[in-house]
Design goal:
The protein is α+β, with helices and mostly antiparallel strands. Helix content is 45%, strand content 17%. The chain is built from 3 helices and 3 strands, in the order βααββα. The protein has a 3-stranded antiparallel beta sheet with strand order 1-3-2. Strand 2 and strand 3 form a beta hairpin. 11% of the residues are buried. The mean pLDDT is 89.
Length: 66
């Protein structure tokens, strides 16, 4: 059985959308990506942040591991 996400949740977020989901600015997001704190993928010229990376980052913050 496959896990399905709600239709309204994108699986890959553009930088601005990822910033909005996390409530941070662009430079802070790039800083986190450079430090390896949050994963991203590159498709063509676009840098995208997977929803799973956002969720994992938030879980680490909540557990105090970040």
């Amino acid at each position: 059985m496959t896990e399905e996400l709600p239709a309204a949740v994108a699986r890959l977020h553009r930088i601005d959308a990822a910033c909005g989901r996390l409530g941070i600015g662009r430079s802070k997001l790039y800083e986190l990506m450079d430090a390896g704190e949050i994963r991203s993928v590159k498709i063509g010229r676009n840098r995208l942040v997977p929803e799973s990376a956002i969720t994992e980052f938030i879980q680490r913050l909540e557990s105090g591991a970040a």
